[in-house]
Structures are given as C-alpha cells and as structure tokens.
Here is the input.
Amino acid sequence: MSVILVVALMLVVFAIVMVVFIYYNNKTTNTFVENEQKKTILEIQKIQESEVRKVVTPIQLQAYERLVLFLERMTPNNLVLRCFQAGMTTQLLKDVMIQNIRDEFEHNLSQQLYISEQAWVYIKNAKEDMINTINSIQPKSKEESLTPTAFAGALFELLAGKESQIELAQDFLKKEIQQRFQ
Here is the structure.
C-alpha cells in the first residue's frame, strides 16, 4: 500500500506541477501574443502615418503656396494692375478690387484645413484690412472727384512705408512653414 500511496502522491504532485506549468505557460504565451499584437498595431499605425504624411504633406505645401499667392495678388500693385481697365470709374475700380479679393479668398477657403488657426487669422486680417483700406480712400472734398489713377496713387501713398497686414501674414506663413518642415 505504501507503493500505491507514493504513486498516488506522485500523481497528485505531477498533476499540480502540470497545472502550475500550464498556467504560467499560458500566461507567458498570452503576454507574448499581446506584446506582438501591440507591436503589430504600432507598426501599422506608423505605416498609416507615413502614408498619410506622403499624401498630406504635398497638400499642406500647396496650401501655403496658394495662400502666399493669394496675399501677393492682394498687394496694391498687383491688385490695381489686375483690376484696372481703361474707362473705369473710381467706384467701379474699388468694387472690382474688393470683389476680386473676396472671390480669391472664397476660392482659398479650404486651405485653412492645412494651416494653423493663427495663420488663418492672419490671412483673414490681411483680407479685411485691404478691403477696409480700399473703402477708406475718399476724395479730399465733396466737390472733388477721384480719378481711378488718383485713387490708385492714394492707395499706394496710404500704404507706403508702413508694414501691412499682408506682409505680416506672409511673414507668419513663411515662419510657420519653415518650422513645420524642418
């Protein structure tokens, strides 16, 4: 009987060892599988981010280019040259210039998705400042009428020597793009 008891005891010990072994083996295997899943998920995320960057980066660059072009087209020199036509009245020139600014702004509205909120504020401020500046130019007296040429001259004179919102916006965009893509 003592042999049977020893064999039974050995079987119980063996069973306990097997349960402990299976438990720790299972736990280790689960941890390994979880770690491997996490690594795989991280690798997939890195690949996705890389692919997104490959698509988004050129679009972001294009947004900055388009907005710098918008600002450049809104400068008084370019705006007057683009909008003035012989035979225009001063009021028509003002209206055409303002409409041109608004049209180009609306055309570029979607670009705000690809730049910072602060950069977009600079763009909007530049647009509003230029429209307000155009609207602010009036003849010196009510009897005097302002020719389109005199209006353009007054616009250039008004903005000469002071840093405009357009220049501030351009500088901000340039700095932001340099920081973003260094």
